[in-house]
């Protein structure tokens, strides 16, 4: 069994509005997961005090890490990160489709990697999709397409900015499975399911959320095991 988690950290911002990088390290420790997908991650930006948040979280947890930049920001970069308690192998940052440009628009990316952890070998993806539903649907399809070209079993985690009514049919049509039913946003009184653990060749045995010291989402944590549907 592998414990995995996805967590939108909002660049280590607290409910009080301060940015506290050290609290991010503690939060990642508290997840108790072997694979952690982080979204809204700063690397050496002014707003995060020049801190490489991925490196900080990796040092705090003793995990291997990789960062995928989506865009330049405040003297640094902003994107997604993956932490693994084990071996982090071949990795790739995939640029997702963007249909228009407007002031403040964010490029979206997916970070993909081959990992070995808790006795299992997986292909893992972490992403944060656009807030515009039509574009997020296109980006989800693009992520699934590139993931399926890699060896299974597969795990995709992240903030998809889409409801289960859209995500579940799209994922099932591709032969995958998606968690649904647990609300993760906003933090204190969540009424939206936008964070997901999506699997192919894996079974989600349990699922729960957790409030941590940073971020405006609840972290989503799952225990997954290999299923007979795994394919290479």
UniProtKB/TrEMBL annotation:
Residues in coiled coil: none
GO MF terms, alphabetically ordered: catalytic activity
Sequence ranges assigned to domain Endonuclease/exonuclease/phosphatase in this UniProt record: 5-217
Gene Ontology cellular component terms for the protein in this record: membrane
SUPFAM superfamilies (UniProt xref): DNase I-like
UniProt name for this protein: Endonuclease/exonuclease/phosphatase domain-containing protein
GO biological process: GPI anchor biosynthetic process
Pfam families reported in the protein's UniProt record: Exo_endo_phos
């Amino acid at each position: 069994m592998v414990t995995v988690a996805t967590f939108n950290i909002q660049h280590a911002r607290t409910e009080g509005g301060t940015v506290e990088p050290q609290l991010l390290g503690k939060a990642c420790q508290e997840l108790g997961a072997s694979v952690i997908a982080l979204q809204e991650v700063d690397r050496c930006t002014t707003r995060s005090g020049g801190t490489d948040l991925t490196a900080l979280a990796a040092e705090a947890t003793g995990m291997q890490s990789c960062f995928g930049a989506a865009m330049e920001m405040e003297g640094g970069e902003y994107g997604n990160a993956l932490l693994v308690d084990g071996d982090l192998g071949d990795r790739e940052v995939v640029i997702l489709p963007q249909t228009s440009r407007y002031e403040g628009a964010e490029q979206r990316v997916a970070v993909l990697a081959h990992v070995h952890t808790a006795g299992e070998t997986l292909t893992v993806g972490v992403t944060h999709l656009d807030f515009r539903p039509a574009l997020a649907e296109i980006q989800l399809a693009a992520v699934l397409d590139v993931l399926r070209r890699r060896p299974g079993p597969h795990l995709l985690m992240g903030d998809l900015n889409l409801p289960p009514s859209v995500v579940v049919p799209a994922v099932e049509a591709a032969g995958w499975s998606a968690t649904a039913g647990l609300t993760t946003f906003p933090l204190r009184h969540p009424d939206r399911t936008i964070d997901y653990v999506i699997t192919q060749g894996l079974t989600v045995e349990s699922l729960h959320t957790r409030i941590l010291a940073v971020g405006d989402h609840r972290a989503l944590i799952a225990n997954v095991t290999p299923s007979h549907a795994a394919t290479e």
